[in-house]
Description:
The complex is a heterodimer of chains A (329) and B (376).
Chain A: H1 2-28, H2 34-44, H3 51-61, H4 67-79, E1 85-86, E2 91-92, H5 93-128, H6 133-147, H7 150-164, H8 184-193, H9 195-221, H10 224-231, H11 236-241, H12 244-254, H13 256-274, H14 279-288, H15 292-320, H16 322-325
Antiparallel strand pairs in A: 1-2
Helix pairs in contact in A: 1-15, 5-6, 5-9, 5-13, 5-15, 6-9, 7-9, 7-13, 9-12, 9-13, 12-15, 13-14, 13-15, 14-15
Chain B: H1 2-21, H2 24-34, H3 36-53, H4 55-58, E1 79-82, E2 85-97, E3 104-127, E4 131-140, H5 145-148, H6 161-197, H7 199-213, H8 217-226, H9 234-265, H10 268-275, H11 280-317, H12 328-333, H13 338-343, H14 350-372
Helix pairs in contact in B: 2-14, 3-6, 3-14, 6-7, 6-9, 6-11, 7-9, 8-9, 9-11, 10-11, 11-14
Amino acid sequence: MVTYIVRRLMLAVLTVWAISVLSFMIIHLPPGDYVTSYIASMSASGSAVSEGEAAALREQLGLDKPITVQYAKWMGLILQGNFGMAMEWGRPVSDVIGDRLTLTMVISVAAIIFTWGIALPIGIYSAVYPYSFLDYAFTLIGFIGLAIPGFLLALVVMYVGFAYFGANVGGLFSPDFIEAPWSMEKVWDLTKHLPIPAIVLGVAGTAQLIRIMRSNLLDELRKPYVMTARARGLSEYRVIMRYPVRVALNPFVSTIGYLLPYVVSGSIIVSLVLSLPTVGPLLLKALIAQDMFLAGTIILLLGVMTVIGTLISDLLLMWVDPRIRFGRE
Amino acid sequence: MAELTVAAPMAGVVAEDRIAVATQWQLIWWRFRRHKLAVGGTIVLVAFYLVALFADFFAYVDPTESEAQRSLIAPQAIHWIDDGSFKPFVYGLKGARDPLTFKRVYVPDTSRKIPVTFFGHGEPWQVLGFIPTDRHLIAVEGAKPSEALFLLGTDTHGRDLWSRLMYATRTSMTIGLVSVALSLVLGVVLGGISGYFGGAIDSVIQRIIEILRSIPTIPLWMGLAAALPADWSVVQVYFAITIIISLIGWTELARVVRGRFISLKQEDFVMAAELVGCSKTRIIFRHMVPSFISHIIAATTLAIPAIIISETSLSFLGLGLRPPAISWGVLLQDAQNIQALVISPWLLLPSFAVIIAVLAFNFMGDGIRDAADPYL
């Protein structure tokens, strides 16, 4: 059990490191650097930057050093909690990202809760009554749900809201609360706005999980121990829920690890359509403006949060599955 | 009655004989044929790829020809029956002002009928790039198609949506194939190495896959795509995007290949081949690969829809293919603005192409997977 936790922790650290290298590479991929884009933006606003100033700025930011040294410095700063300046905003990156990162996670977690809440009962129903009318109906809906990209679903939801109800269904807060400080009312307002993005984000994952749950439980229900339980006269509810569902739940739990990066990915693009105050729109703007410090930080932090989420799901899996808990994989 | 009872077992024997001598591919084909949805999906995909191959034939105007005068024309209906006989025609359009909003709208001019022909003459193009012709699926008589025919309406720049959709199908359907081919090479090589040799190299490759899969893909793709120089040509961006997408797409294929290699390594026939002294290359390519190639095909088919969705999403964000390239995602960029969408909902039509293509790939992939597994 301890070995397992240590192994997962080491893998998590390795992943975080790999993500940091990848984000750093992304910062450095576009031609030019921070100073070139700084000079460009300065000359666009009419003031010139001399050669000497540019060189001094490069030295001050360490951009004249080899790339490995730059990476080490960037890492050093980040470990101290300093993510650098967001160029376009002229404010520290941590200021700009702040709430948005939390909201990204709130939406992602809400989407996963929705996914689970829907997929679990439907999956069980479909396995217990296979080839029934409802089973076919759910399969069909699932297939369609899988085939619709998240942003399209968001577009359709927005369109229907706008065209038939005359309401803007986007956003996470009512206009009164957007600038308001956090309070119970604001949290309640957020809760009321959460279902639409959560459903839009969760649909594809739900469709997938229903299929997994259905096939797992179908395999499990055919096993002799289920027949034994039935022969001994256990109630049907107990026969199904007590053991087969628990066993079928294992692969289900392990998919959270893959579900989280998937949902976070989706939230970026869905946020743009539904104009949600997450890091998604910020990332897109930063990437287009080549504000690579901001973009790199967002990619890094999203990656780290996903890794932490995956770690939690692994520990959860350990709690559910005794085979992993006792070191027999 | 007596004849029937005799005939039935006979038929059974014949069927069994056929199965006994059938090759593995024939067996797969017979099982695949029974899967109605998969067959339907395959037919749809064949149609899509025909459109991709002969986009110029299915389109009736130049997809880049813009005309501000013709912006946002609503889709137009073809009238099939004229004077009680089959003579398809469309009404000419005349511009007018909406008396309430003062917006320019187009109303059918019922006094002017423009005959529509199939396989008629239109703008010249070349079949497969070298046989000149001017036949199009749909053409009009006595008018320029760019001024008379608007089957799916026009976009904000007055470009014909039907023709653009045909060319977009070519881009989006082939980008899936090219990316999946790249992913396949990476996946089979790395997954094969991982599964066949095992040990340290296996752990390294497995860790790389786990790391890649735990990173949210869209931000990563966005970062990579944003780094593409703005002055690259359409073709350069096209290939850069396929590479970016397949950089992550290979992991799933590698996982399937690795799993197959590991389970096959313990089979008796592999040990037998080793005992008679076959070389490693021969064992892999002559004995192991043929027994799981159908699984690889299934996994590949199921990987394509994900790639199509990725490309569409990236282009929709403006980070994938950029105009003047035409793909489903590029077309859907026009639908980003909700207000514009409410006024001209036909801009959302390209999304049906995306959904139908993805569904068809999923059905076909499912069918192949079921057919390839002899134990089902």
